[in-house]
Amino acid sequence: MSISLVEVAGANFRTDYDSDKLNTDFMGRLGMRKRYLPARLAISRSLAMNAPVELPDEELDQGKVIKGDTLFGTGTALSVWLALIVERAGEPDIDTKRLIALVGAHWRRGLAKLDEEWEQAGADISRFVRRLVEVAELPTAGGRLPVSTGASGTGATFSSGEIKVPLGEIGEDVSTKEEVFWSLNGKGGAPHTAIMGGSGSGKTVMAAAMLRSIREQAPVPLIAFDFKGDLSGFTGTQGQMALGEAFEAQVIEPPRMPIPLDVLALSQKDQFGIDEAALRFRESFSRLKGSKLGDRQRNYVHEAAARALSNEEPCELSHIRDRLLEVYEEHEAREDGATSSMEELCRFPLFVPQMSPAEFFQKSWIIKLPPNVPEDSRTIVVNLVLDALDQHLNGLADAETGPDGARGLRVLCMIDEAHQILGTKLPSLSRLIRMSRSKGGAVMLVSQSPDDFSGEDDEFLDNMGLVAAFATNAKPGAAARVLGKGANLTNLQTGQCFVRFDKTTRKIRAW
Q1: Omega into 260 within 30° of 0, i.e. cis?
Q2: pLDDT averaged over consecutive 10-residue blocks of the chain (511 residues)?
Q3: Which terminus of the chain is less hemmed in, N or C, by CB atoms within 10 Å?
């Protein structure tokens, strides 16, 4: 064999582009934080198959490279992998080029087989692992399979190490011309972002550039609320990859396309859990402009929600509407704004309970809520999805922390044109801002002005790790509260903004 371990260790291995994307999917499905882990699993799965591997078409687009010593390890581990691949090939004389081709082919075939078995397991990680154990002919006696903390379970993190984010497409300090980075998940910092600016100022350009950079560094999923309807295809000023493509996000537009989330799923199915969930729903419902709940109506809504959650699984908005009408009839109360608001919300299906929160929040979604969607429908969608995210995240153990103190990420949540819902003091949004950092959550709010935050609690912006403001006619007091004295937002040039992080305010050119 005309190849050495040194050559293998230094070689660049890759599979085709589509298979590489599937490799990234398996990182999320299995809670793996390194690209080489699903690659090793795929190659070993292919090696377990008797049929000879077929080399793919050389014209296929290629995926990202993994070095040999990363993919296979070093020393004995590298020797064993090489021996297995050569033995399966049945070729006594293999050079580096041939080995790279064989590895890519095994990687591709193994991923396809794993994906098939994942579907057969119903995306259930325990059943999937059991299938792999059977293929490997490992003993299963002597105890249960270990409980997963992977993505389809509860505890997956999608990043390891510090994520340094450039501030926009350029991200250059106006005075020093040096490139400026913000540590999203660094030790002691908050991972949340508030970006503000008038129409056409470039706030979405900056937000999209930052999100792309995060995704390039870690396969973290994104939940984005799009009030304009153009976020998925947003490419920035330099024709970058569209945001939806970068995150491989599914775009949904309720009620035309209902959100496939069991949004009213109970975290605890005892009476306490039911009462707590009913209270959360009542607080979300009370934020609707049309509901205007008094004390009596608040009690009726809570009672209706508790009944529906106790008796229906999965529970849907229509079940709460039906119970609410029952409660009004029992109390001989006349129908009012609360009942009419519930009827309006149930006119078209906003949600279908196809996925649990754990399943839903491991994928990327862009939820379009353009102006033609009724305001109350938009508000309830945002608040119930955020409430489900809040309950999911805060029910998990703290996200892992690396040796450098960087906190692992589980999900990004972005609200574009956030002024649409700011000021209403959505309880779920406030909780996510205050509490999700330790759980691996990161929230990005893109709005028009510092004034938009004036209706929120004083601690709301204090919990932002990064605040950026482009040109706007904000009141001087609001701008000073956000950025400190001396930040004049009316004289900024095109593409410029003030940023505040690490207790320092700087003027940068973002694009």
Answers
A1: no
A2: 81 93 90 88 90 81 91 87 89 86 94 90 80 65 38 64 94 94 93 92 94 94 93 83 92 94 90 90 85 85 96 95 96 92 93 94 95 90 94 89 90 93 79 89 92 70 90 75 75 91 92 90
A3: N
The 10 Å Cβ neighbour count of residue 109 is 22
Give me the residue spans of the domains in the chain. Answer: 5-136, 164-262+356-509, 271-345
Q: Which tokens go with 493?
A: 């040039």
Tokens in use for 435? 């509490």
Residue 29: name the closest of 123, 166, 102 by CA: 123
Name residue 66's beta-bridge partners.
13
For the record, the structure tokens of 122 come out as 């119903």
Domain spanning 5-136: CATH superfamily:
DNA sulphur modification protein DndE (1.10.1220.160)
> How big is the CA angle at 180 (ends 176 and 181), to the nearest 5 degrees?
165
The single residue listed with the structure tokens 């004995």 is 76
- Dihedral Cα 354, 244, 224, 498, nearest 10 deg: 170
CB-CB contact of 194 with 498 (8 Å):
no
Q: Which CATH number fits domain 164-262+356-509: 3.30.70.120, 3.40.50.300, 3.40.140.10, 3.70.10.10?
A: 3.40.50.300
Calpha distance 82→5 (Å, rounded):
8
